Structures are given as structure tokens and as C-alpha cells.
Amino acid sequence: xxxxxxxxxxIRDILYDDSNIxxxxxxxxxxxxxxxxxxxxxxxxx
Length: 46
Fold this sequence. Notes:
By secondary structure, this protein is an all-alpha fold. Helix content is 80%, strand content 0%. The protein has helices spanning 4-16, 21-44.
């Protein structure tokens, strides 16, 4: 099963790091893409 706590921690780390907004947005987008891929994989192969 997907570890949602780990994703929440990653999101928090991205939001509170010292990088600029463009880097934060890119990192959040990549994390969202990874999360969606895992969800789709989980749904396709329960």
C-alpha cells in the first residue's frame, strides 16, 4: 500500500526548504506525478 505519511513529509519538506518558488513548483509537480503513477499502478494491479 502507498505510504501517504511519506508523501505528506515530502510535501512539507519541499514547502519549507529555502529554494525559490519555481523549484518548489517543479518538485511538487514531480512528486504529484510519482504519486499518481503509484495510485494508477495500485488500481490496475490490486
